[in-house]
Design a protein that fits this description.
Helix Hairpins, alpha+beta, 4-stranded antiparallel β-sheet, single chain, about 375 residues, 9-stranded mixed β-sheet
Length: about 375
């Protein structure tokens, strides 16, 4: 007798093998094919073509940024500054910028300050008073310029303070900002290195022409590898004008994005620049200290308004890899298997003929019953005449 399927014991050791049943259900058949086509379009169209899932990536490049500003301006007939030349050392803070730099566009000058007693500025709320009791001796003026002496100045109706005198007067801000700054240029040299692929790229053009960087200006079409940008043009691309920001300053974000497909030529790896406004006010103070012949200390105070540039560099490099390709293909095969399981569940649980399909799909293989051998009849072979 040939071997047949037998039932294991105990039951949890039973082995279940697949049984393929052809069902003439056109609705489920059409639905199954549509799901398969959807998965194929998703894997091929979205995962492989759009998202390029067959590539491995490196999105943590090593970055270096060097910036330099060029330009000069002159202020005339402004208090002690009868005529003053402003160059890069005056305009740019810090003088050697990296990914952050500040361009001066306006200022308030308070020259010749000396330590002493003077009335607080009327613009400081905590410095206003009507009598001496409003000025507690030894108490600092909140957001002010010194320490209260306990006396109220009846001319200005502000507390007298001990500090650098005379105090800064906000009304002395220049009504005409340093307009020449809009024609200044900013040189941004940026280099990225993707360690995973041992690949580096710079945003500067490799050329032996020493005059190229003196005359070129960045243009995404004609000069994509010229790293020199005009100040007014960057502000315009951020959606504003130099006039709007030059009076009280602002903050401009410069985003440099490297999106490199290393399966293509290196020339296709180019930086993409974008500009955005982050704040519409920006200023800080700086002072120059000196002494007279009597060794008395003085300082010239400048409150500088200007545009702060913050440079952010991000990048991603991609290249074909066997591992991500295998993962994407495996995921697609798993999705196709899930579709078959989903259609089976519809047939077995939601269909009106679910019992019929259940009996067709699941069958228990039982061994045939063994027949008992019949004993010979002793009278069978007796011949009775």
């Amino acid at each position: 007798m040939e071997a047949v399927c037998t039932k294991s014991f105990p039951p949890f050791l039973d082995y279940k093998t697949e049984k393929y049943v052809l069902t003439k259900n056109r609705k489920i058949g059409v639905f199954h094919r549509l799901l398969q086509l959807g998965i194929l379009f998703y894997i091929v169209g979205w995962v492989f073509i759009v998202k390029k899932g067959y590539q491995e990536s490196d999105n943590d490049p090593h970055i270096s940024v060097i910036t330099k500003m060029k330009g000069t301006s002159v202020t005339k007939n402004f208090r002690q500054f009868q005529e003053r030349l402003w160059d890069v050392a005056d305009f740019v803070k810090p003088s050697q910028g990296e990914n952050v730099l500040f361009l001066v566009t306006n200022f308030i000058s308070t020259p010749g300050q000396v330590l002493g007693v003077c009335p607080e500025s009327p613009t400081i709320l905590d410095g206003k008073c009507s009598e001496d009791s409003n000025c507690t001796e030894g108490e600092p003026v909140i957001i002010g310029n010194g320490i209260k002496t306990g006396k109220c100045n009846t001319t200005h109706f502000t507390c007298e303070i001990y500090g650098w005198c005379p105090v800064e007067n906000p009304q002395l801000i220049r009504k005409t900002p340093l307009k020449e700054a809009e024609n200044f240029t900013l040189f941004i040299k940026n280099e990225v290195y993707f360690r995973k692929f041992n690949f580096s790229r710079s945003n500067t053009k490799k050329t032996s022409n020493i005059t190229y960087f003196r005359t070129c200006k960045y243009d995404p079409v004609s000069s994509p590898y010229c790293p020199i940008f005009k100040i007014s043009e960057m502000i315009r691309k951020a959606g504003y004008s130099f006039t709007e920001l030059s009076f009280l300053g602002g903050v401009i974000g410069i985003d440099i994005m490297w999106n490199c497909d290393l399966d293509q030529s290196e020339s296709a790896c180019m930086p993409q620049y974008s500009f955005r406004l982050q704040d519409r006010k920006n200023n800080f103070r700086t002072a120059t200290y000196y002494w007279d012949r009597d060794r008395r200390e003085y300082r010239d105070l400048l409150k500088l308004f200007g545009i702060r540039f913050e440079i952010s560099v991000t990048g991603e490099a991609r290249k074909f890899g066997l591992v991500p390709t295998a993962i994407c293909l495996g995921t697609g095969c798993a999705f196709l298997g899930v579709i078959t399981l989903f259609c089976d569940l519809i047939l077995l649980y939601l269909n009106s003929k679910a019992d019929f399909y259940w009996d067709c799909k699941y069958e228990e293989a039982k061994p045939p019953k063994r027949q008992k051998a019949t004993e010979p009849n002793p009278l069978q072979n007796i011949n009775i005449d």
